[in-house]
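TEACHING EXERCISE
Course module: macromolecular assemblies
Task: Read the component lines below, then compare them to the predicted structure of the full complex.
Student: A.B.
Group: 4
Components provided:
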Amino acid sequence: GENVEQHPSTLSVQEGDSAVIKCTYSDSASNYFPWYKQELGKGPQLIIDIRSNVGEKKDQRIAVTLNKTAKHFSLHITETQPEDSAVYFCAASYVGNEKLTFGTGTRLTIIP
Amino acid sequence: DGGITQSPKYLFRKEGQNVTLSCEQNLNHDAMYWYRQDPGQGLRLIYYSQIVNDFQKGDIAEGYSVSREKKESFPLTVTSAQKNPTAFYLCASSSRTGIRETQYFGPGTRLLVL
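Instructor-supplied answer key:
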């Protein structure tokens, strides 16, 4: 089955700087890659996703890049703000499969 | 207000007791899921259901049971056979039309053992 590894497990970034979180996946059939943000005591919220027919997707300060050959994808947050502090999870699946495999999460702390 | 609701927010279980966690959605989604989240770990799939009256085991189904009698409801029972039930439980749903893979999560239920 699919295995998703996520790094780093914790990340501290000065406010205004950029943050990058990386994930690798094992199943070459995977072609759907969402990112979730989870605030303390709450359920994860989808913040961006990408499918394998594109290499990059951007939504304001958030972007995701995908390298299918190397089987890795990354989340980029620019101009970080205190409200970006949370745990971020990556996941992988393939179109038509309703099961997501999640990474172990990255705790992002924005330092004011 | 459209979304997924879970209740209760906190639940306490005594030794040998079965407890049931509620999950309701008004998104008209066909598929629903239960995940378990432990500190420092990712989400692990317990059970999922793609359609009413049908469900499948996930990766860690032992000690849990579910039912799917209505499209909007997918309750999870943590049985006494689950020896380490303390965790944060998350329910999610997705549509089987359109972007089927995108899952939306509820606010979670934290289960504690007395």
